[in-house]
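dumping this here so i dont lose it
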């Protein structure tokens, strides 16, 4: 469903009760997308607020799914504008919502930035939002950020994998069953958005062992299929050093 004709923002239910809110942007040649995921339950959860400047657009999309006042949890993978930029606007619109992120992210950024105290999650922490349980996995520097973490919906086995498998392009289908590694490796070749951490393969293997049914990417399509295989392929591609990492970022000014 298109929720804003001007921006092309759309909302799609990509798994049971999980709504992908997608806004296309022209920040790189060929376009780019920023996704938030809204999970419907007794205590609805918004994962990634989108940029502060996009708040009215993202809010409009949230309201197509549920009254924003119902939202109880607002979090993100790591502290950057596309993950948390609109946090305080959403906290004002959803007075009972609690911000959350990884424990170190709360210490370094969230509790300074957020208008209300944030909940810091430790690796392996689980919490209920009603009919489903969410699990937090601390994934430092994968793909980037000391504070990086990933949220796993244990009921649908959806991995809210943040910037992993970032795919360029403005007109991506909400869900794809075609592998997204080639496209995300193309993106990594264009902009090396990975920290070169020694723990990357071990962390990707840990995510693969969850056997996710879906990779809910923050940029690009959500992938439905053998996510474990794709995570392992990503790990071996990185280990082989096959990414074409020499190109400089190709930002364009609109
Ligand atoms: Fe990021
Ligand atoms: Fe991101």
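and the seq i came up w/
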């Amino acid at each position: 469903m298109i929720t804003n004709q001007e921006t092309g923002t759309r909302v799609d239910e990509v798994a049971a009760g999980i709504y992908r809110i997608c806004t296309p942007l022209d920040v790189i040649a060929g376009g780019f997308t920023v996704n938030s995921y809204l999970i419907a339950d007794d205590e609805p959860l918004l994962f990634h607020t989108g940029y502060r400047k996009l708040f009215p657009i993202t809010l409009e999309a949230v309201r197509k799914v549920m009254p924003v006042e119902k939202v109880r949890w607002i979090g993100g993978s790591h502290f950057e504008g596309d993950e948390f930029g609109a946090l305080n606007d959403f906290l004002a619109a959803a007075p009972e919502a609690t911000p959350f992120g990884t424990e170190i992210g709360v210490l370094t950024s969230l509790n300074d930035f957020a208008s209300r105290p944030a909940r810091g999650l430790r690796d392996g922490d689980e919490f209920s939002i009603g009919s489903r349980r969410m699990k937090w996995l601390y994934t430092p520097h994968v793909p980037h950020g000391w504070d990086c973490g990933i949220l796993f919906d244990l009921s649908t086995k959806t991995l809210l994998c943040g910037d992993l498998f970032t795919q360029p392009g403005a007109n991506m289908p909400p869900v794809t069953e075609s592998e997204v590694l080639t496209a995300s490796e193309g993106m990594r070749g264009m902009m090396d958005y990975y920290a070169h951490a020694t723990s990357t393969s071990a962390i990707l293997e840990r995510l693969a062992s969850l056997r996710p049914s879906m990779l809910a990417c923050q940029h690009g399509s959500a992938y439905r299929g053998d996510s474990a295989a794709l995570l392992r392929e990503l790990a071996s591609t990185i280990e082989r050093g096959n990414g074409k990492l020499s190109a400089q970022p190709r930002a364009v000014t609109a």
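The pocket of fe (ii) ion (ligand 2) is lined by residues 82-83, 163, 218-219 (CB under 6 Å).
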